[in-house]
Protein 1
Amino acid sequence: MISDAQFLEQDAQILNIFKEEGSSLDSNRVDSEAERVPRDLTIEDLRRIDRIVQKAKFSVVAKHSMSFLFKTIGVGASELALAFIGVAKSANLTAGSVNAEEHENDRVDNE
Amino acid sequence: MDALTDEELVARCKTELPYNVTAYRELLRRHEPLVYRSCLKMLGSVQDAEEACQDAFLQVFHKLGQFEGRSAFKTWLYRIVYNRCIESRRRDARRSENHAKLVEEITQDDIAREDPDMKNALTGKVHEVIAKMSGEDCRLVTLRYVSGLSLQEIADVLEIGLSATKMRLYRAQEKFKEIYNDLDTGEEAEEA
């Protein structure tokens, strides 16, 4: 089991190594109220941030466009299906009335 | 915007996104640079780090509505980043195995287009040590010393207990020291 003292000692040693090399941000800066103040941003930081914002905006547009496209395709497909059903029904009805007419003619002929 | 806390910014994002990105941009200004540097340490490549960082913040953009605020925003963000980095390493197992090699493969162009801070982040001794560490140890050390997360925050990110986190981090620290001292010894031997 590691004691808190052991852990903290090692933690401080490594933190120092990072700080010496400038690879760590000052941990005080993270934990304190200073977190609210943005760090000094480099041009490269700002460029990356801009790229992310642009991508995020684009992803929303793309998402909406896709859903609009699928909705349109969906509506189109269902209307086409309805049209087919309508055509099929009317064809059936026409065929039925022709059959009935023929049947009636046959009956009259037989008589 | 500067005066708002992360939680207040998140609340604004929830009502304003996707139409107004002002609060989101402020969150990015506060966290992106450090997240990027953390990804850089965890993945060892400018390209991978930029991609992982971008993906993580896009996830934030789309999933912020689902964030219930049970943990701090920072913890939630780093959980996304941490998982994204694991995924990235898994996606390319070869890179994972040859992390140290990969660091050497980073072109000068990559480094040149970064600021001086970045040069240091990719070429320093600390980076060399981290590159030689295993994936899990590397991520733990990065979260603690690069991202500056507290032990509790790391435990929240990893979704494990505090004592288990302490144990894992302690082992990672040991590993770090071991490699660091080995490098020191190597350098001294070379000089002699």
Protein 2
Amino acid sequence: MLLQLNNIFKWVNSGGQRIFLLKDINLSVQEGEFISIMGPSGSGKSTLLNVIGMLDNFDEGEYHFLNESVHTLKEKHRANLYKEYIGFVFQSYHLLDELTVKENLEMPLLYKKYKSSERKAMVADMLDRFNIVGKKDLFPAQLSGGQQQLVGVARALIAIPKLILADEPTGNLNSKQSEEIMELFKKLNKEGVTIIQVTHSEKNAAYGSRIINLLDGRKTS
Amino acid sequence: MIRNYFKIAWRNLLRNKSFSILNIVGLSIGLSVTAIISIWISFELGFNQFHEKKDRIYEVYNEYFVDGEIWTWNSTPKIMGSIIKKDYPEVESVSRYNYDNTFLFSIGDKRIKSTGTMVDPDFLNIFSFPLVEGSIDKVLEDVNSVVITETFAKKLFNNEPAVGKTVKVDNVDTFKVSGVLRDLPNNTEFNFEFLMPWNYLKQKGWHDENWSNNSVATYVLLKEETNYDAFSQKIKTLRQSYDKESPEMETFLYPYTRSYLYSEFENGKETGGRIDVIRLFGIIAAIILIIACINFMNLSTARSEKRAKEVGIRKVIGAERPLLIGQFLGESILISTISGVLALLIVVTLLPSFSTLVAKPISLDITNVWFWLSAFGVILFTGILAGSYPALYLSRFKPSTVLKGTYKKISSPVTPRKVLVVLQFSSAIILITASIIVTQQLNKVQDRQTGYSKHNLIYTIMEGDIEKNYSSIKKELLTSGIAESVTKTNSPITETWSNTWGVEWKGKSEDNMTLVHRLAADDAITKTMRMEIIAGRDFDLKTYPTDSTAAIVNESMVKLMNFENPIGQIVKDNGIDWRIVGVVKNFVINSPFQKVEPMVIEGAKAWFNVIHIKFNQKITTAESLANAEAIFLKYNPEYPFNYEFVDQVYAKKFDTEKRTSSLISLFTLLTIFISCLGLFGLASYMAENRIKEIGIRKVLGASVQSITTLLSKDFLKLVGIAIVLAVPISWYMMNKWLQEFAYRIHISWWTFVLAGLSALAIALITVSYQAIKAAIVNPVKSLRTE
């Protein structure tokens, strides 16, 4: 078991009313799964993803990640946990504009205090694997959306996470680029990476092994 | 990691060129102003401080209670020095210092004029003026020995050894060079090229033991174990036992180390002096640096939304907060380092001009370790100070909020930023008002009627054979048509060299101690000076030989004496009865900023030092000068012809005020500029923050004009508050400053209107750029999310 959510609630208070963003979510994810979270706008998909990614807190419930009880951990420990095991992919890529492709890939390794020689090897490996060696010295603005997302995925993968969280990774891409990214996910999943993605598209969702539907913060299936 | 920080910081700089330039320019101006002022201050603080025994050196001062006020001054009778040496065992050494003497030195055909003075042999023991040649104890032993500076030695003897050579002084006395002094440093008050023994003064008969003739400085070196306070009590009554001539005076020792920075006294209390100016500019420097630093913070946080996203990404891919803080601090330290380098260039380029502006020989000593240490210290400190706010503030963002693009800062009614703008503009308005008022005051005084004509008027100091041949010189000047009029006086028309409370007249009350200035003139003074005679007549020795004991007084003197008809009255001075023959309109002789004090112009029987010549208007000045020089050289061949134009000398009276005026204008411009940078940053922050609001307003039909107004209004309100704050403060300050001058302007209301309006205009121009830029953005762009 990679992670388990038990009776997760998240709410905000607005105008004296409590509005639930997540309501009684139960979810367990095994290593090697490829899960798609679906649902209409405002149904809590991204919130759920952020909670899983430990970027966001929740108000009630239990969250176990690799034998750690996330809900009892302090902020700092939580951050260490996600840094070590989780890679993020975003709809709008969120690459650092001031850095080249190579440097963007190197960044997580720097933060994890890898040695220079190790970093070089890992970055070269990743460039190779994603077939973007020729683009290593370009800045994000010089790449197409699909290429940027490719770098985004590569960056999420470089520190060898156990889990990839992707928030509408193809939302800003055209259908051809989308397909490429989804194929990539499928391939990565086969290689053993656990993936949870949020998507609007039935077609993309079909790449996954399991689909979770959300409506108004509740799991419907 | 560090390399990575700087790489990113550098790229960030390049990517946001306008932002970086604003930041760097603002900061480097702040740093260079601080550096220049600090260099100046450290020069001033180090002035006179290089003497090894400085803590034991004192200057003798007198205190005198008159008209309910204590007067303090530092010139002493010549005899005082020897008395102190004789009577007080606590004293290690004493040296008198005669006022400056200018002599003509000659060797063979070479003639060089030089200024120096006479001192007691202990002078070189008290003060640290090292000898290159000669021994401290012997050089001033012999009456006809002279110690000269290296430069002067070179002038006299080229590169030959000077010691042992003889020189002729004023063509009469032969001196032997007994020692060579290293040239004086530029941070000493003393300014001599040679020193002669005090005994020479005695030999020439210039020494006197008159207690009422207070004309020389006396320096005392106390023994190491002497308690200053106890000794002060003891020496207080020195004059009581010796001085039977002057009224009751107290003697005290003033620490030499304070003489340069302080030594202004009011009613017996030390009230400051140069230190006031130093403090003022120290505060200005600090304010400018702080404003520049806060601007930097402002400009950095103004871009926080953009940086927030970056923080989010970095946190998500593993950055911890300390690392982010490090990154932002690294960026600001990079900027402050660049600014520091730029500031150093500015300092090196501008220091000579600043040195001229403040009239101090300040320079940058780049070999000084302290300079570099403090420079790096300030750069690091500025970088950390300026970077701390953005670093701490930005690194706090939560990735889940900022990455969603919903991050918005909620503005509170009184943010520190607004307070800052108010402060910046208040200082700008205060400085604008100050420059206007200082300039007005300066103009008013410069336009003041002096009461005599400076046109075509020169003076020359009498030296060598001039006095002896005066009548021939005068005759020749007049008959050759060079001069319209020639008058001998005791001091130049631009200053009095003598004053007294001892003048007596009929009906003068016992306790009247008003100081009366003395001028002396042999003949035709009002003709030479073109003064206006109100009553009576000018001196005219030819028609009235008794005019040698006649006097002319000014209006203030008439008022003081309170005679209905002053003509024919007698004023007693120096044992002579001077009969008043004329009254002249008040004329400015000392400070044009002050009121004209009572003055007696005494006739030909007095002492004379100076010749005034009114040139003939019909001849060009160059021609007159050439002809005059020929005449002077004919009658005084040993001396070069030296002269001063009265109008030029008079213009020098405004040097200090002109300097104040230029300094204030300079700092006004800088403050305005830096304030504008701050406002610009704030405006761009606001524009970025309200971009969505602007978009919505535009979609709903708002015009560019109405949005520009909306955005600018807030800032103009702040400037309005600044005006309200600044006006009373500047009125109070400038009013106080003007009190120093008896002759002064009245502060008029339009000064403040002008200052306020210019501040408003400057603010409007700065803000409207950003406001218009924000207002013309296509709402489609600003309303699009991700």
